[in-house]
Amino acid sequence: MVCKAFEVSRSSYYDYRRRRSVVDAERVVLRADVSRIFRKSRSSAGSRMITSMLNDEGVKIGRFKVRRLMSELGLICKQPGPHAYKQATVERPDIPNRLNREFSVSRPDQAWCGDITYVWAGQRWSYLAVVLDLYARRIVGWALSDRPDAELVVKALVHAYEQRGKPTGVLFHTDQGSQYASRLFRQRLWRYRMEQSMSRRGNCWDNAPMERVFRSLKSEWIPSLGYRSIPDARKDIGDYLMDYYNRQRPHTFNDGMPPVVAEEKLKILSGIS
Length: 273
Description:
Elements: H1 2-5, H2 10-21, H3 25-40, H4 47-56, H5 63-73, E1 111-121, E2 124-133, E3 138-145, H6 150-163, E4 171-174, H7 183-191, E5 195-198, H8 208-220, H9 230-248, H10 259-270
Parallel strand pairs: 1-4, 4-5
Antiparallel strand pairs: 1-2, 2-3
């Protein structure tokens, strides 16, 4: 009677019931893959990122299907809304804004950005300094300390300098933080033959790539209650910056490729040794 009322043949109805009782093994595997990547990202990966990471693993799947599987699994990514930045025009006369928002550069180690943020660890605030290469948005140096002083940013700079093979002629851009304007930091830049650039006062857009790194770190990775100790924070943040962010996480700027993969590919295409 129901089939007749809805003008559906009885054979179609029984075929539908039969297909519902059969387990779709391929879909089960895909659901497991989506769930695995979502957990690995600490609930931060959306359908676009999961699709890109699965494709990198050799799994052929589209974003629409990933979105459906996420809905079936009840997976909702955590991403903060847009942030309203203040506008300002005041520059330091001795350290002008030489980068001037030219965030797309033609080669590695041409322009780096640096900044400091805070992390709750061991029942107190700790401070994280990071150095970013603008070429493929790769993290090239970082340091963590319980004091937000000039030594912290120098340690991050030294880490980047050593890891990248001691490059010269780098343009190093930061905000107008006192640590970056200190004599200790500026002397280290001079020793490394690097040129300094500073954002205009109160203008976060002038250092937008670094702001984006910290936004991703805090929204995707750092536990909501912080870390039990500084060693725990150092290990976990290091895993994110140098492994997950650099080598696994798709980056929009790189057309969905992780920074390390994009840097190597761009270097080959550009003939950079």
